[in-house]
Amino acid sequence: MLRATLKGMAARKARLILTSLAVVLGSAFIAAALVLTASIRATVDDLSGDAYKGADVIVQPVEPENRGDRLVRDGVAAETLAAIEANGDVADVSTTVTWMVNALGEDGKIVGGFAPTMAVNWGDESVEREMREGRAPEADGEVAVSAQFVTESGLGLGDTVTAYSLSTDETPYEIVGVYGYAGGRDSLSGSTELAFTTTEAQRLVFGGEDVYSAVAVTAADGVDADELLKALEPAVGAESEAITHQAYVDDLNAESAEVTSVIGYFLLGFGLIAVFVSVFLIANTFSIVIAGRLKEIAMMRAIGAGRGQIIRSVLAEAGLLGAAAAAVGAGLGVAAGAGLTSVIANGFLDTATTSVAIPWSAPLAAVAVGLGVTVLSALVPAVRASKTPPVEAMREAVKADKPITGITVTGLVVTLLGAAGIILGLNETFGSDDANLIAAAVGAGVVFIGVALLTAWLSKPVVALLGAVWSWSFAGRLGRLNASRNPRRTAVTAAALMIGVTLVTATATLLTSVKESLAERFDTTIKAELFVTGPVTASVPATFDPEVMDEIRAVDGVEAAVDLYYDLAQIDGTEQYVNASSDIEGAVTQFGGVVAEGSMKDLGEGEIAANDAAAEQLGIGIGDTVTATFSRGTEAHEFTLVAIIADNEESDGFYVDPAYTAEFYTPKPNMALVDVADGADVGDVTAEVEDLIADQPSVSVQNHEEYLSQVTVFFDYAIIAIQLLLALAMIVAVIGVVNTLVLSVLERTRELGMLRAIGMTRGQTTRMVTVESVTIALFGALLGIGTGLLLGWIVQQALAPTGIESFAIPTALIAAYLAASVLVGLLAAIAPAVRASKVDILGAISYE
Amino acid sequence: MSTASPVKTTAVSAEGVWKAYGTGEAQVVALRDVSVQFASGAFTAIMGPSGSGKSTLMHCLAGLDTTDRGTVHIGDTPVTGLSDKALTKLRRDKIGFIFQQFNLLPTLTAEENITLPAAIAGAKADPDWIKKIIHTLDLTDRLSHKPTELSGGQQQRVACARALASRPEVVFADEPTGNLDTRSGAEVLRFLRTSVDEFGQTIVMVTHDPSAAAYADRVVFLADGQIVEDMTEPTADKVIDKMKHFEELVAAAQEAAA
């Protein structure tokens, strides 16, 4: 029996290759995802290992990165440094002073996008820097800049660059040097960097305090890291901590592991979706291949093969095919993963070297998944094949399609069950919000599966509807009829495309709804038409001179203008946003808030106002006392709650008098709201305010739309990222449609021969197959879009209580999906259509 | 679309046609210098044993296969040397086909199958003519059925209607009764006879069934790629009698050729 299987496989190479493609792709994605994740981690780990190379112990402030979410840095005190230097076991000491700054480029705008701009002292040894031009900064007015900074700012050696931090004003520096990093790199992970003298760096980072971000210590000969650690203990004190270089690197690795594992899950998700889609393709291909072999199987049964033998023979074929294809896929995947690693490492991480790590799990998982999926997918067709009655071999009859009643009823039941879950969840039938959300989400997933089962049933009406588009051409009409000829086959093929389109449509719909909800709430609650603020991507918030406020208020057509400062403070042991303004009541009004209790008039020293949500969170009422420590504050202040504000959702937390802003993260205002009077021209006011702030290039005048587009730019990136998912689904879908079409063309050879014999041209034949292909693809896309919109709507409804109140349809994206599906149909049709148009008429019509 | 003229003109002619398959040792000569004319408005049967070249001759006449040497004409149109496009157009406009396997499109109804050639040509079939054929073939109450809902005889009658729908210059029928029971076969043959007698249709039919050949006006016998006998006004008995002495005929033909 096995021999017969093998010979049978050898005789059907074309079909085998088509079936294998789906398996190869699925396996390759899994292997590539695992290799890529492991390699990126290895590469990043290498990068961490190079930090403070040669040092034995690193001394840093306790919890240096962020104490909670505190925005202001702590440092290692100068006395600690002196004590370390004085220690006999210490051979060498280097210091690091670093944090984010803003620098203005040639155009006067803040340099940088998502990657930060860093200030550092030139003596820092955390990375190896190589001077390319010029020299190191020697005076406080001098700076050396990274090559990436030169690229992004447009400035160069000899130019003057303006930089500032939250603790310094805009200061001009002369660029005296341009440097790169070990391995010829221009940048570390895309960031730009400015290197100052140590004292200037301390002024920028610590407001001039003689403290350090970190101290790297090298042990004297004969002293190991642990001994040095012990010896330094008395010198370090309680404010700082000493850790071995190894521990420091491990910490860095643990941090980067969090990021790399997110990338890994993301990639693995892609792989699993590819596998999920390939299940449809493999099952479909096997069904078609076996349907085409029913006569042969019946003949085998007639000469005495048992049902078990038939099943085993089909499964053996699937097993051999799956193993071979999965092995190829694993190999390709490992290679692709390794190749992608260098692309990502060079393109995004700016690493000098890439380490390719191939974990055993990669090929093993790929082969296991590929093999398992193939055999499982072949099981149903195998059992069906074994039921072929032997008389089938002698009969030459046109077989009617199998009824789709069973699958349709199942699909309906599943869809209704899911819908019930959604309705119960959305109507808040269950006790907790979480339970309702879960019910709606699970219901949505179940509906998805239900609709996938219903595709066969849906294919008739939808394809008939689509057919109207092609009815002008007879070949098109035949193609449309062919597409609805075998609803099962059309459905499974379309389902492969539907899955991907559903996922991206649902996500895009949700993200668009979130954006829309934000915009709508913004427009309805915020009175001010204009904002004066800097780019949200600036390394430190852009601030402006508060004196300009009076001039803005004096502009013709300005009804009101309020300045805003903000800080993340510790209030009664919790992190809270605190705002300040020279006109607090005006600010609250601009945000649409109202004073619900107490009064904010003349909010003075020791007095605080709270949003109702914040007051509720801390359980405080009017007259109660809270303790607050601001970012730059060294001591706690006591405040009495004098007002509670309601309906102030666009502004968080608390309000205090501007007298405290010296201790704020932004000691200067970082935003102004400008309310334009009714009837005044917003454009004129914008132009006048722009003139007033012309000497402060890091802030600009923005309207709602401009401001929101900055805030929601993250969503745009997320939407772009999920389009990659679509691209992947499309590739798999193309293969699926090609498979179905090629096999259909093979099955219909005689019919094609007849059509050609009675006068159908090659062009008409090509059109007929192309229409069938495009119809299937469009059907899949339409189902996906419909289901995706439904799922997006369900999730939006479920999230409505959290503020996502608007439902928005991403029309442009949906149009693009439809266009892409037509492209999929066209691409998939090429090979089968050419094959169909070249059918050998004589061979096709001669009797057997 | 021409109607057959009362004057006997030639609908299809072959002149010195040669056709061989394969090369070297494996070469099989299917047709050796065949020259034959088929008159308009006549029903001709081509007979011969398996491998005699009768199907090849029909394929060459119908423009489905190319000839190695010699020329073929359909009416005044030379078939030999036409491009694929021109051949396709020729088949569409001037030739009708009836196959042994019926070869109907399962996605279309009987009526749609009948008007298929016109639809492919993007033309409208003559409704009176179609009605007449459908009536003659007794298919009136089967028009909305799909092929799977029809018996073999009904399917072949639909195929006959399709072949005649565009009033082709010639209809080629390839073993049209090969897949049918005796009664259904006889119905189909009677219709072919009727279409010649009443509509002036030209029909060339390949068959190996003597009783089928008896419906024709003339029988051309093929053996080893050559025409060995040309019989007019055949009856089943005459045909069977001729086939009994086939070896002698072949031997005589070979001697003549040598």
TrEMBL record, chain A:
Boundaries of every ABC3 transporter permease C-terminal domain copy? 270-390, 725-840
Transmembrane stretches, start-end? 262-294, 314-340, 360-383, 404-425, 437-470, 491-511, 717-746, 774-795, 807-831
Q: Which residues form the MacB-like periplasmic core domain?
A: 17-234, 490-691
Instruction: Note the Pfam families from the entry.
Output: FtsX (PF02687), MacB_PCD (PF12704)
GO CC terms in record: plasma membrane
Keyword Membrane included in the entry's annotation: yes
The keyword Electron transport appears for this protein? no
User: So what family is this one in?
Assistant: Belongs to the ABC-4 integral membrane protein family.
Q: What is this protein called?
A: Putative ABC transport system permease protein
Automatic annotation (TrEMBL), chain B:
Q: InterPro entries in the record, alphabetically?
A: AAA+_ATPase (IPR003593), ABC_transporter-like_ATP-bd (IPR003439), ABC_transpr_LolD-like (IPR015854), MacB-like_ATP-bd (IPR017911), P-loop_NTPase (IPR027417)
Q: Which UniProt keywords apply?
A: ATP-binding, Nucleotide-binding, Transport
Q: Which GO terms describe its molecular function?
A: ATP binding; ATP hydrolysis activity; transmembrane transporter activity
One GO term of the cellular component aspect?
Answer: plasma membrane
Q: Domain of life of the organism in this record? A: Bacteria
Task: Name all ABC transporter domain ranges.
Answer: 12-249
> Pfam families, from UniProt?
ABC_tran (PF00005)
Q: Does the keyword Nucleotide-binding apply?
A: yes
| Record keyword Transmembrane present | no
Q: What is this protein called?
A: Putative ABC transport system ATP-binding protein
Native organism is Glycomyces artemisiae
